[in-house]
What does this fold into?
Amino acid sequence: MPAVGAVRQVALSAGRNLDSTLAFWRDVLGMGVHARYDPPGIAFIMAGDVRLLFTDGVPAGIVYLDIAGLEAFHIEAKAAGVPFTAPPALVHRDTEGTFGPPGESEWMAFLKDPAGNTIGLVERHPPQEE
It folds into this structure.
């Protein structure tokens, strides 16, 4: 049986307008295009070591991205007119250390890009920040 490793690539919908989808990821999330190929109309953005592939013909997806300063980002982006589907909220207290250091809590906020992909922004907080 082969050993499966880390996530290498995630495919996300580009919708009907690759330019507007990429502009959202650049202007709102600060993530630049790593490579683009026209034709066929595909682009890649790097999220750490993971490639995000944007192309038409795949359903909208969900990607979760780590962020530092989630509350400040939410305030600034919302003031700039970025619609959030859910504001920052506590989603998990990791008392056992299942997903990171024990005692941390995980906060998330959600928004959508122009192609309908859902973006979950994730921030871990040490216990004393509660």
